[in-house]
Amino acid sequence: MVASSALIRASISSATLTQSDTDNMKIKILATLLFSISLAGCFKTTEDDRFNAKDAWQVLESVLKQQYAYIDRPDFNAQKVFNEFQIRASEASTRQEFADISQMFLRHFLDPHLNLGPYDENDFSVFPTGSDIRAIYKHNEFIIEDVKADGAADLANIRPGAEVVTIDNLPVKEAVEKVFGRQFEQLSLQQINYGVNISLGGYRNRERTISLKHQGELKTYHLAASYDSINAIAKGPTLTYQELDGLGYIRFNNSLGNSDTVNAFKEAITALSETSALIIDLRNTPSGGNTAVAEPILGHFVDKKTVYQLYQRQEQGRSYKDADMEKAYAEPNAPHYTKPFVVLAGRWTGSMGEGMTIGLDAIGAVTVIGAPMADLLGGIKTVKLAKSDTWLELGFERLYHVNNTYREDFEPDVMISPADRDSNGNDPALSMAQKILNESLMGSM
User: Omega before 118 cis (within 30°)?
Assistant: First the structure.
């Protein structure tokens, strides 16, 4: 109900009124206005009043079941989790509450590519970009397994082998429960491991407080927000390269989505052309990238159009299983590199970094060295979700190695854990790469 101008229009000439009459008239007009505004407020309908959580859930469930290429993974009972969270999400009273519950629901799929936004300051950092510690649950303890090179945890001298006691002042089991919105005892080991690593990454752009026990000593660390080091890297070179005792070494700086990386790589292999072999380090690619950057780089290692990856697309009303198997190609790109090369991969090799790893393996790498990769599933797209003012990022392309195995099942030929930093702060994967290449080169002489 809106106040009409007719209610406040005065037709009496002010010339015939005393000052007292004029004041009384002003008071009456003001009272009428306030009463009208008050009535309008009583009938006002807010956005959240119009929000229907059941409708919003139906949209989310429909999009996932029709367009997510990993909905039917054999190791995960998706329908069971759908049934549980349908009740919770459908009872949400606001859009924000619905988004928070939906995010907890999606984490059960253990897919870092499966995300719902928009994000706010109370959301966890996106994993694995917002991550610099890898921990696992073993014998009722949370043990650090690896530490990301040059991240805040590495700079604080946190090392593998330490036990995580608290995360942001919460016992670790409680911290994991916050990730999933379920009791710790209800979670699988895979979910527990996934949850603790999301929790260790902290909340978006917030400092973290982590207590660790190592060799009987309890120590608390105050770490910068996990995004800080990634943001700092973005201001520097897209990659770095150097000669290491006759071997070329190129490390990507989370830059597979930056078109400048293509020319930077060409510059690097040209500068390293006199070295006897090459080490390609993809361990710092947690944010992934795109094929427009990856394919020209792969092209330096082929002399003809070459398949480096296979994929199938999930579409509405058609499962990826019924889709044609398609091929992704690398075209030759000068200069052509003909010498031996190895690839380093690990816990912070994500998405397009994983695609490049299996691609380089397919087109002739001597070997792949490191730890299992981040398992960001598929090629992704973003879908705007009606009814909830949210968006869903999901894998609609299922990706394969050229040998027809799933990309997420690929593991390095030479497994090393930790792969980034060992207990002494050294780089075990790089040392292994130098050893393998030197032995290979000696054997070919």
Answer: yes
Residue whose tokens read 């912070």: 348
d(CA 349, CA 360): 14
Q: What is the pLDDT of residue 316?
A: 74
125, 204 contact by CB (below 8 A): yes
C-beta of residue 363 within 8 angstroms of C-beta of residue 337? no
Radius of gyration of the chain measured on its C-alpha atoms: 28
Nearest to 89 by CA among 80, 78, 98: 98
Instruction: Give the pLDDT score at 50.
Output: 84
| Residue 351 φ/ψ, nearest 5 degrees | 55, -110
Q: What is the pLDDT of residues 303-324, one digit of tens each?
A: 999 999 999 998 777 788 888 9
Two structure tokens written together for 364: 């002739």
Residue closest to 346 by CA, chosen among 410, 420, 237: 420
Q: How far apart are CA 218 and CA 391, in angstroms?
A: 42
Beta-strand relationship, 217-223 and 208-214: antiparallel
For residue 1, give Cα distances in angstroms to 6, 34, 230, 320: 14, 12, 52, 53
Q: What is the pLDDT of residues 335-371, one digit of tens each?
A: 999 999 999 999 999 999 999 999 999 999 999 999 9
Strand 379-385 relative to strand 390-400, pairing: antiparallel
Q: Which tokens belong to 273?
A: 């052309």
Burial (CB count <10 Å: 0-12, 13-18, 19+), residue 323: middle
Q: How far apart are CA 412 and CA 353, in angstroms?
A: 13
d(CA 371, CA 429) in angstroms, rounded, equals: 9
Closest by CA position to 375, among listed 187, 134, 125, 19: 134
Q: If you ran DSSP here, which 8-state letter would residue 339 be given?
A: S
User: What is the C-alpha separation between 395 and 114, in angstroms, rounded?
Assistant: 7
Residues of the chain where predicted confidence (pLDDT) is lower than 70: 1-49, 444-445
What CA–CA distance (Å, rounded) separates 238 from 165? 36
195: left (phi over 0), alpha (psi -120 to 50) or beta: alpha
